[in-house]
From TrEMBL:
This is Leucine rich repeat containing 18b. It comes from the Eukaryota. One of its GO terms (cellular component) is cytoplasm. The keyword Transmembrane helix does not apply. InterPro entries: Leu-rich_rpt (IPR001611), Leu-rich_rpt_typical-subtyp (IPR003591), LRR_dom_sf (IPR032675), LRR_domain-containing (IPR050216). It comes from Esox lucius. Keywords: Leucine-rich repeat, Repeat. Pfam families: LRR_8 (PF13855). Coiled coil: none annotated.
Length: 255
């Protein structure tokens, strides 16, 4: 190493200037201002974009971000925040101050239970929450306060039970718990563990007539099989059923 040159501990990545950020501004079909900085090899949150904090949507997905600053709360108008496919292991408490947020995507990061703050339960307008492909063993109980929540993705985590905090959410339509080590109900206490390879929970009103008939027929067959085996599996989420994988086409967006 040359004399006098210091080794930088900062992660390597692309530097984003304000000019570059302004060029990345787009107008969505419904007239929202979106700042799209996805897939740009960004390793450090660009402070310059705080000057564009009046945007409605912010896409920082598919980058190299390891940290999100507290200044994220400057984006007071934000309705849509996409941070999927980064290297985040912690979300700041300031996330709870994004009171207009409707959609939050944190899929495919390094988030553990301690890295997800309880303040996420302050996002009262949140309708879609994607926490798939992390290392979560449980989720904050404060999520029970998200009364507008419609869709939750928790696939590919380390959950060993279905989260109690989701049971009484009035508008919940779908929960994706695919690929979690959730033990079967009739194997409690035995130490047996299985992986849930495909589990979607939806309201009956979300299914067409043919799909609803098929689901009920499959459920009848399963109940019949369980009764023969002298066991009975109770539904964990009132008013919801488990459809086949093709019952809702939009489920492909969670995969």
């Amino acid at each position: 190493m040359a004399k006098g040159r210091k080794r930088s501990n900062e992660p390597k990545g692309r530097k984003i200037t304000l000019k570059m950020a302004k060029l990345a501004l787009k107008l969505t079909m419904d007239g929202k201002r979106r700042l799209d900085l996805s897939n740009m090899e960004i390793a450090i949150f660009p402070k310059c974009i705080l000057k564009l904090c009046d945007v409605d949507e912010l896409d920082l997905s598919r980058n190299l971000l390891k940290k999100l600053p507290n200044s994220i709360d400057k984006f007071v108008n934000l309705r849509w925040l996409d941070l999927h496919s980064n290297q985040l292991d912690h979300i700041p408490e300031a996330i709870g101050r994004l009171q207009n947020l409707h959609s939050l995507n944190l899929c495919n990061n390094h988030l553990s239970t301690v890295g997800l703050p309880s303040e996420i339960g302050l996002l009262r307008k949140l309708r879609s929450l994607n926490l798939g492909m992390n290392v979560l063993e449980r989720i904050p109980s404060s999520i029970a306060g998200l009364k507008e929540l419609r869709h939750v993705a928790l696939f590919n985590n380390l959950l060993t039970r279905e989260p109690d905090c989701l049971r009484n959410l009035p508008h919940l339509e779908s929960v994706n718990l695919k690929c979690n080590p959730i033990p079967p109900e009739d194997d409690k206490g035995t130490g047996a563990v299985r992986r849930v390879e495909c589990l979607y929970l939806v309201k009956e009103s979300c299914l067409c007539a043919s799909c609803l008939w098929k689901v009920k027929e499959d459920r009848r067959k399963v109940d019949s099989w369980l009764s023969e085996d002298h066991s009975h599996r109770k539904s964990r989420f009132s008013g919801m059923i488990t459809p086949n994988s093709v019952a809702q086409e939009d489920q492909v967006t969670w995969r």
